[in-house]
Amino acid sequence: MAHTADTAQSELKKRVADFTDLVWNQGDLIAADTYLSADFVGHFAGGPDLRGAAAYKRMAAELRRALPDLTHRTLHLIQEGDRVVLRAEISGSQRGELMGIPPTGLPVRRTETTLMRIEGDRIAEMWHLADEIGTFDQLGLTPPEGAGPLGQIAHTFKLMARFAVLQAKAGKAAKAQQAAAQGRKAA
């Protein structure tokens, strides 16, 4: 028979695995209300802390809009006491704005590590690190390796022009959606 500590460990790890599958693979953002504590705090490198399930759901919705075909794959799930560490890989095609970057249609694959502190059966706190530089590189935002100062400047100008084109395309698509919606209302 398994030790009680082993069973509790398995249950916490399963709970984290279920939460990440529901939110990230199934798109069930309401699951955050069940799995996150009322005073949840999420610390995401490079951004402001997320406070509460509503803030987490907004962040998840933004990422899922940017990568509508997002898949999440657990690589490692490790527990010690009330802490669970999740190392995962996410992938998808950037079809919406991502960190201020207009849609590119390019595929993105990155690894991320999240440390979660559990209180009872809920995630109370989370520390999250992701390979953002790798994401930027996949989207063509970083200068080519070995680019000298002039190459970096040239890359910046090309990037600015590319963003202008992408933003114009996104603006036209939004206007077309608004026109279609107004047409449906008039009908």
Give the arrangement of secondary structure elements:
Blueprint: H1 4-25, H2 31-35, E1 36-44, E2 50-51, H3 53-66, E3 71-80, E4 83-93, E5 107-119, E6 122-130, H4 132-138, H5 149-186
Parallel strand pairs: 1-6
Antiparallel strand pairs: 1-2, 3-4, 4-5, 5-6
Radius of gyration based on Cα positions:
20 Å
- Tell me about the largest β-sheet: 6 strands, mixed
Category from helices, strands and their pairing: alpha+beta
Number of extended strands? 6
Order of helix and strand elements from N to C terminus: HHEEHEEEEHH
Low-pLDDT ranges = none
Across the major sheet, the strand order is: 2-1-6-5-4-3
Query: Count of helical segments?
Result: 5
Kindly estimate the percentage of residues that lie in beta strands according to DSSP.
25-35%
State the end-to-end distance.
Answer: 67 Å
